[in-house]
């Protein structure tokens, strides 16, 4: 009667009560925005009701600032579909670079081969708390007069070369979806380019508080309640994506499909969401430490398994906030491993497969390898030592199966 979600950030009832009181007073969002400015050492914060709307607002503002003269956006081929959705919604043109499957970072050689004519920005994604080579990408952007957008969806709290990820970019994107570091719903753009963002008609109004959504999330992610939830989901054959806080992808099955109407007035997260976000931000260090301990325990258990490849950390990556722990698995075994983990109460994830991502292996070999082999394991604060040993035992059993198959 215990089931581990793929990713989770615990929320206390006392935090929700405090946030409700702040919501009544009406000053929660201002305090949260000030805390984010200080955290990332930037001057302006703009919140929105989904990751895609956050990305869309940032890209549309950049497009307006150049009067449409530059329309190309560089994006790693393997990345969250909400980024490509925002590019398409903004009527901009995606230009792909590859990623390095050993580190999940942007392949600098692939990046250097791109024709930068009419390139407006690069979106630097940081998968699962890991990071690309920030200083090299920053130099690339400076050299070609390109804006650097850093997706800190997973990596808030991670440090590269002793600097927080997100502090060196022109625009920092945060994702507040369930399963992320601050799971309050929505997203944020954090920047020093206030004049660019002010080209948009950002009202600061809200349409939903998400109080009941977040109360439900607080209980649902706990191992016992998640066990009940998964029993119901599996019995009914229900698509859990329909419950996602990211409403633009709830009813989609293909990579480039999204449901989105460009708003005439951008809306923000509520004071309740922001107040809860501030509390989580203030407790972030304890979550980082818990995830790091679990990630390193998982790493130690899996390092000698032949069909598993561990992901290396970039040399200058000082701290990794592992929202999920990623590994590469023999593609012939991945589905079987996933199924066995699920049957034993552990929700691992192949990431983005459910979005129908289809990558050309000749054009983007690194991205294709990651798409075919990635498996992320839970390492959040609800994970304990017994859970880690259970994961290790399941994965080790398949190692024996692989050896027998090779002998035959």
Quick overview of this protein structure:
The protein has 408 residues and is of the alpha/beta class. It is built from 14 helices and 15 strands. Helix content is 41%, strand content 15%.
> What's the level 1 CATH class of one domain?
Alpha Beta
CATH-defined architecture of one domain = Alpha-Beta Complex
Residue stretches low in confidence (pLDDT < 50, at least 5 long) are none
**Rg of Cα set:** 21 Å
Look at the structure and name the CATH superfamily of one domain.
Aspartate Aminotransferase, domain 1
Distance N terminus to C terminus? 39 Å
Strand order of the largest sheet: 1-11-10-7-6-2-3
Query: What integer is the average pLDDT?
Result: 90
Specify the overall morphology.
globular
Order of helices and strands: HHEHEHEEEHEHEEEEEHHHHHEEEHHEH
Strand content: 5-15%
- The tally of helices reads 14
* Sheet of most strands: 7 strands, mixed
Task: Determine the CATH topology of one domain.
Answer: Aspartate Aminotransferase, domain 1
The total strand number stands at 15
**How helix-rich are the residues, as a percent range?**
40-55%
- Which secondary-structure class do the elements indicate? alpha/beta
């Amino acid at each position: 009667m215990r089931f581990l979600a793929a990713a989770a950030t615990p929320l206390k009832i006392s935090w929700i009560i405090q946030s409700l009181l702040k919501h009544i007073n009406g000053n929660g969002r201002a305090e949260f925005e000030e805390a984010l400015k200080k955290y990332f050492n930037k001057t302006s914060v703009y919140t929105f009701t989904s990751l895609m709307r956050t990305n869309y607002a940032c890209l549309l503002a950049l497009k307006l600032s150049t009067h449409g003269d530059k329309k190309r956006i560089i994006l790693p081929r393997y990345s969250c579909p909400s980024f490509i959705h925002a590019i398409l919604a903004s009527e901009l043109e995606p230009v792909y670079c590859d990623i390095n499957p050993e580190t999940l970072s942007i392949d600098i050689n692939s990046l250097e081969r791109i024709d930068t004519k009419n390139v407006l920005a690069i979106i630097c994604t940081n998968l699962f708390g890991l990071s690309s080579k920030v200083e090299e990408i920053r130099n690339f952007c400076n050299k070609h007069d390109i804006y650097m957008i850093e997706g800190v969806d997973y990596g808030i709290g991670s440090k590269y070369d002793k600097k927080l990820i997100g502090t060196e970019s022109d625009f920092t994107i945060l994702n507040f979806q369930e399963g992320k570091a601050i799971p309050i719903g929505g997203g944020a753009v954090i920047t020093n380019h206030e004049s660019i963002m002010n080209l948009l008609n950002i009202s600061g109004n809200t349409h939903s508080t998400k109080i009941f959504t977040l109360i439900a999330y607080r209980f649902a992610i706990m191992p016992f309640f998640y066990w009940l939830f998964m029993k119901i989901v599996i019995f009914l054959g229900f698509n859990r994506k329909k419950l996602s806080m990211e409403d633009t992808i709830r009813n989609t099955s293909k990579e480039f499909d999204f449901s989105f109407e460009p708003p005439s007035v951008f809306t923000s997260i509520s004071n309740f969401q922001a107040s809860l976000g501030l509390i989580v931000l203030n407790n972030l260090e304890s979550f980082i430490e818990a995830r790091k301990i679990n990630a390193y325990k998982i790493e130690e258990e899996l390092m000698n398994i032949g069909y598993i490849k561990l992901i290396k950390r970039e040399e200058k990556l000082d701290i990794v906030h592992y929202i999920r722990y990623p590994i590469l698995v023999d593609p012939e075994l991945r589905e079987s491993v996933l199924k066995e983990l699920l049957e034993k109460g552990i929700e691992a994830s192949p990431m983005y497969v459910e979005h129908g991502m289809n990558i050309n292996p000749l054009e983007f070999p690194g991205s294709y390898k990651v798409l075919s082999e990635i498996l992320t394991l839970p390492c959040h604060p609800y994970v304990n030592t017994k859970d880690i040993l259970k994961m290790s035992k399941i994965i080790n059993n398949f190692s024996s199966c692989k050896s027998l198959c090779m002998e035959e």
